[in-house]
Amino acid sequence: MSEHDDLIHIARLPQDASASGPPEALWLDTAAMRFLVVSVDGGEADAPGTPIDAYLTARPDRATAVRDALTDRFAEYPKPVAGARRKLSGRVDPATAQAVFDRITPENRHAEVDMGPPVGKEEW
After folding, report:
1. What is the pLDDT of residues 14-24, one digit of tens each?
2. Which residues are CB-contacts of 59 (< 8 A; sequence separation ≥ 6)?
């Protein structure tokens, strides 16, 4: 394993007309769960990169480029469902086995299913 196995390339950041220096790319460090901006010179990433918050503090003019790169990259993924967070946070504690058994009634019990004769050491 290389030292950069935890990095996933997200998008190359667009260069503006006044840009000097190598192009930059946005990466996700999966080990630290943070975005990094990495200089890319000649197609090779020069990791480690700059954490996105430090990058945008030093270069606030690049916020639009970063936002657009993320928006374009993740446009194909499903959007969050309104109210989904509320449904997940409103769950009750897991039931005990006894609580589950107590809810079994003749009305909600399925019929016995014939799976054929015993095979191997399946005899009861």
Report:
1. 877 666 677 88
2. none
